Amino acid sequence: MSTGVSTFVIRWINLLTMFVALGVIGFGVWISTHHDGCRKSLTLPVLGLGALIFVITNDQRLDFWNNSILLWMYLIMLCLTLLGILVFTVLAFIITNNGTGHNVAGLRFKEYRLQDYNKWFLKELNNSHNWKRLQSCLVKADDCSNLSKRYKTLKQYKSAKLTHIEAGCCRPPSQCGYPAVNASYYDLSFHPVSPVKDCKLYKSSKATKCYNCDSCKAAVAEYMKTEWRVVAIFNVVLFVVVSVIYFVGCCARRNAASSHSKC
What we know:
Elements lengths: L2 H30 L4 H4 L2 H15 L10 H28 L6 E2 L6 E2 L7 H8 L1 H14 L5 H4 L3 H5 L5 H6 L28 H4 L12 H49 L1
Antiparallel strand pairs: 1-2
Helix pairs in contact: 1-3, 1-11, 4-11
């Protein structure tokens, strides 16, 4: 591959990737203007990722191909980025490898158990500071409060396919045996049929629900697992794109070195 062809190919790849970077940065700016505290916490990582991709791919304004030092710096930066993406992606798949939902007879959704998930998730979710912040976000999100608006009758509620958070944080585990009055209330006058501590932690009040339950933490772990998997898959695509740019850059450096040696 000649230096001219290498330059042409890599600049077109960089141009396409730069649009991806601008999209990521735009998403980060949108998060920063959102009132949800949990989503705001993602602002810096998202903006940082977008800025990193933009800096790496925005080489059109620099004449890398005629400056061996700049080209070496560019390739080293790409190599470190590839290693970082690879390490994060491998860790993400390892961390999200454990954990699965459990089917319950008569329900269209699954219930989750905290002990099924990776130890890293257990450590982070059992940290009182982290969980208080997540609890605040769950209450503000109004997922539980909206159930009564979405499901007007008990029949509709029992046949609903609830989300992870709705299933784990808005209701007591099925093993408790509390009968549902409607989508927002359970009859707690019944003695729970299970000794699980979640049965005693559940309250019908808007601010309490099952937010202190292990079932809620497990539901959050399942949500995080899903999100991490999406990020990991995106990183695989990003790794392939950056690898192509790195390969073409190496070809350009080798050809440039050959041209200088002939002179």
